[in-house]
């Protein structure tokens, strides 16, 4: 029985519904032919292809078994995760650690030592930070562990140490992204959605990237923004592009994606000229805010297990090119690849 009784606006008689339903658009249902079942049942506009006696929805068991357990589209936003984000119950451990060090003033120097390929003493510096007998060595880590450092609680030293406690992922140990000689479909806002990328994959695209997603909307659990992160199973090399203006939101968003979705790289949008983005300090405005730009790249690189890439413009002002000056610095900050929008 319907709990709404006579106030219900919907039909409960299948025969009456089908009599009022418009005629089918064809005799074949592509979902039934492909997957062995159609989830739309009697509401499908090609329903005659899979409706049997008594208007029962038919299932091709042999074909459906082939797709059982396979995820056609990944990176969807679950209800549990959405509730955690909306109620601010999601914990950002790595991001908070980086931001505490950033506020303490020593994080950038420590990260520079760890990320620089020319720093021969990077591991020694880290060992000195962890050593209780190092006189003047403790910097970011020591400030974070100290009870008097901005009220941060001290970390207990009793109990066994795990690899997660003492081992940090070095740049040389990150997941490698080999795209040499491959065709890269650039991220296209309002155009490069999942169906478009599937078509491009059939025409020969090797690497695909999702549309620009605003990090603050992702952190709020907006379903429309999370839809930009969806990945089809045919996209073997796939990345997402993030837009933001501040290191706290960008670093937290990077950690969130690192723990919840499956991607091969994360791209930072530093090329968007839209006023709505530029006036907030994001997009190509980051090219003129080098300190924030550096903090964003370093922060995201510290929490991600996949490479960080950056897209920039040749410059912000007309006929004033600065890309050639900023690219070497982006490399030092930890980015694995820089793409330049040539206008």
Automatic annotation (TrEMBL):
GO function terms (MF aspect): flavin adenine dinucleotide binding; tRNA dihydrouridine synthase activity; zinc ion binding
Q: Does the keyword NAD apply?
A: yes
Domain C3H1-type: where? 1-15, 28-53
Question: Segment Disordered: which positions?
Answer: 129-163
Task: Keyword check for Cytoplasm, yes or no.
Answer: no
Q: Which family does it belong to?
A: Belongs to the dus family. Dus3 subfamily.
Name under which the protein is recorded: tRNA-dihydrouridine(47) synthase [NAD(P)(+)]
